[in-house]
Each structure stands twice: as C-alpha cells, then as structure tokens.
C-alpha cells in the first residue's frame, strides 16, 4: 500500500467517525475473519440501571438491615469503583434521596466485585465467583433467583454483610439499537462473531440471543479475555476485538486489530488501533468494508 492511499483511507475513516491510530492497521483490518465483542458498553449501551433489590429473609441477618440503609452503604462503597455497574447503584441511591457516606475501607476485586467497611459493617458486593472466594456459601440459595435475572438479560449482584448473604440486586443495561442489524451484517459477510464477557453465563447468553450471537464466552477475567483472543489466533483466525473497559485493554492489544468505543476508558482507547467516535456497532462494519475497499484500490 502506498502512503498516499493509506492517508486517503484514514481520512475516509475519520468521516465515518473512526480514528485510525496507524495505517498498517487498515491493511490488517481488511483480512479480519472473526469479530470478538465485549458485552457491557459494547453490545449494550453501557447505561446500566438498578432494577431490583431484594432483601433476603430476616432470619439470615446478623444485624437488622433495612433496604434504604443497605442501598446507601453499598452505593457508598461503589463510589470508589470505576465499574459501569457501580454508577447504576449510585444513581439509584441518589434518586432515592440517600446521602452517601465515606467507607472506612475499600478493596476492588477486578472482574468480581468490591468489598469494604461501611459504618463498621463488612460489605461484599459482586458476582457468584466473589461469593465463592469469600466462602459466602448461601449465595447458592439464591441461584434460582439469580438465574431468573440472567434470563431477563439482567446482571445479578450478591450483597453480603459480615459474610452473610443479605440481598440480591439486578442491573439491566439496554442493548444498542443497531446491535442486531450490525451483527447480522457481520455474519452475512462470513465473519464469525464471538461475545467475550466477565459477566455470568445466563446473562451473557440472554444478551447474545437477542442480538444473534451464537458463540459466547462468559465469566472471563481480564487476562483470560486476552488468552481467548490468542487462542482464536492460534486456530487461524484474524481477530478484531471491540471493547470499552480497563478489562478489555490486554485483549485489544493482542488482537490483530483493536476497536475501542470512544466513550470507553482511556486505557482501552490507548490499547486500540481504531477509536469509534459513535457508539453504533454498524461503524465496525463500515470500517472493515473501508479497509477492504482501500486494499482493493491499492492492488
Ligand atoms: P464485563 O466484561 O461485563 O465488563 P467485568 O469483568 O468488568 O465484566 O466484571 C465481571 C462481573 O464482576 C460483573 O458482571 C459483576 O457481576 C462483577 N463486578 C465487577 N465490578 C463490580 C462492582 N463494582 N460492583 C458489583 N459487581 C461488580
Ligand atoms: Mg465493557
């Protein structure tokens, strides 16, 4: 490819709302065979909302925790998390008029949840894997409920106080309006489409089903996202990875071409070859088509 023709393509990409970090990536993009999509903020809008908060039977409570107090304390902890789910919890607490407090202690468990001390109580907030790690066994008694949330494409979040399960919450994140269209366009071009997410299997499956993705890899930690991309490459695929989060950064670097959502975290953008200024998924198809067209012109 001549430098001139690449520059022209980079300009065209900008008109589509795609910032190209380096011209070489355009050449690689013309050869992509598999598109790997992160779920939260990539397939979904990344504007999660807390839809359910169920306080479990009082007999399991070490202390009497009411709903408002629980929400206030969880939201107070989540103020220290950068996860998109955290903002859903904080927003709900503030909408309910709750005044957040400063936790005495906070720990982030990447890809699992958070723990910390609020008003002298030890909170653990996160997925089943965090509950398992902390030996909070009773989460299993909520499995039916959590699977039901999963079927509704909601993310279930467990809350334990002083190592006793006290509540389960659900967070819904609407699917992007053009996701189904964009994904069927990818498939009709012969591309394989894979969803890769740290969220649980049931929720991931429900979202994938809505947008026509058949291949779902769920429950993956950030390093595992990268390992999955490498596995696909070793199987002969040329991989485009699309993501927005801190947890997508290593996978974006390892992919043959990385696409970051423009409203994503800085580290995702720095790790990617392309930055999508629009949140529409269709722009990925436009970029791949542009890459193909520009390589044809060059030959
Ligand atoms: P994703 O690929 O969906 O962005 P992550 O790897 O960031 O997922 O997180 C995986 C799971 O860990 C989330 O679906 C959620 O269940 C749990 N989790 C992570 N961070 C938090 C948090 N701050 N509060 C509650 N749960 C969290
Ligand atoms: Mg994400």
Helical residue percent band: 40-55%
> C-alpha Rg, in Å?
21 Å
Largest sheet strand order: 1-13-12-11-2-9-10
Structural class based on helices, strands and sheet pairing: alpha/beta
Q: Report how far the terminal alpha carbons are from each other.
A: 8 Å
> What is the N-to-C order of secondary-structure elements (H for helix, E for strand)?
HEHEHEHHEEEHHEEHEHEHEHEHEH
Total domain units: 2
The second-level CATH architecture of the largest domain is 3-Layer(aba) Sandwich
CATH topology of the largest domain, what is it called? Rossmann fold
Q: How much strand?
A: 15-25%
Identify the bound ligands.
Answer: adenosine-5'-diphosphate, magnesium ion
Query: What's the helix count?
Result: 13
Give a verbal description of the structure.
The chain is of the alpha/beta class and 299 residues long. The chain has 2 domains: 3-45 and 175-298, HAD superfamily/HAD-like (Rossmann fold), CATH 3.40.50.1000; 49-172, Calcium-transporting ATPase, cytoplasmic domain N (3-Layer(aba) Sandwich). Helices cover 43% and strands 23% of the residues. It contains 13 helices and 13 strands. Helix 1 (3-16) packs antiparallel against helix 13 (282-298), helix 4 crosses helix 5 (84-95) and helix 8 packs parallel to helix 13 (282-298). The termini are close together. It binds adenosine-5'-diphosphate and magnesium ion. It is found in: Cell membrane. Keywords: ATP-binding, Cell membrane, Copper, Copper transport, Ion transport, Membrane, Metal-binding, Nucleotide-binding, Phosphoprotein, Translocase, Transmembrane, Transmembrane helix, Transport. Belongs to the cation transport ATPase (P-type) (TC 3.A.3) family. Type IB subfamily.
């Amino acid at each position: 490819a001549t430098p001139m023709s690449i520059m022209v393509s980079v300009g065209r990409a900008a008109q589509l709302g795609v910032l190209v970090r380096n011209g070489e990536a355009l050449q690689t993009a013309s050869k992509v065979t598999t598109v790997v999509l992160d779920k939260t903020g990539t397939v979904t809008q990344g504007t999660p909302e807390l839809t359910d908060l169920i306080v479990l039977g009082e007999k399991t409570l070490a202390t009497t925790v009411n709903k408002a107090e629980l929400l206030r304390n969880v939201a107070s902890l989540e103020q220290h998390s950068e996860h998109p789910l955290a903002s859903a919890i904080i927003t709900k607490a503030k909408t309910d008029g709750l005044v957040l407090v400063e936790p005495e202690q906070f720990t982030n468990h990447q890809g699992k949840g958070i723990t910390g001390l609020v008003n002298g109580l030890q909170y653990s907030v996160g997925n089943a894997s965090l509950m398992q790690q902390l030996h909070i066994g009773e989460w299993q008694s909520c499995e039916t409920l959590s699977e039901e949330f999963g079927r509704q494409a909601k993310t279930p979040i467990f809350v334990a106080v002083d190592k006793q399960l006290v509540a389960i919450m659900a967070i819904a994140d609407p699917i992007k309006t053009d996701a189904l269209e964009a994904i069927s366009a990818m498939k009709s071009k012969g591309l394989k489409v894979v969803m890769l997410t740290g969220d649980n299997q049931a929720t991931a499956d429900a979202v994938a089903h809505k947008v026509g993705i058949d291949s779902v890899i769920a429950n993956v930690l950030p390093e595992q996202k990268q390992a999955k991309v490498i596995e696909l490459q070793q199987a002969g695929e040329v991989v485009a990875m699309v993501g927005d989060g801190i947890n997508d950064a290593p996978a974006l670097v390892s992919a043959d071409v990385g696409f970051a959502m423009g409203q994503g975290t800085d580290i995702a953008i720095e790790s990617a070859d392309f930055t999508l200024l629009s949140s529409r998924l269709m722009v990925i198809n436009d970029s791949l088509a542009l890459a193909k067209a520009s390589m044809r012109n060059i030959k």
